[in-house]
Amino acid sequence: MVKTKSTKVCTAEGGPGESPKSPRKEQHEESSVPADMVLAALETLRREVAQNKKEICATIDSRIETVTENLKKEFSIMKGDTQT
C-alpha cells in the first residue's frame, strides 16, 4: 500500500488528527510534577530491584558453594569405598 498525503495517520505534533494545540499536549505540560514523582518512584524501584538481585545472587552463590562442598565430600567417600 502506498501512503499518500490523504492517508497520513499521524500529524507532526502527535497522534491521529491532533492539532498542535491539542488538550492532550497541554495536559502533559501541566502534569510535569506528577511525572517527576513517577520518575522518582521508578528510580526507587530500580534501586530496590538491584538490591534484591544482589541478595538473590549472594544466596544462590552460597547454596552452590554448599552443594559443591557436599558433593566433594560424597565423592571422597565413594573414592575411598571403591579403593578398598
TrEMBL record:
Stretches with biased composition (Basic and acidic residues): 21-31
Chain intervals for the UniProt region annotation (Disordered): 1-33
Domain of life (superkingdom): Eukaryota
Protein name: Uncharacterized protein
Organism: Pagothenia borchgrevinki
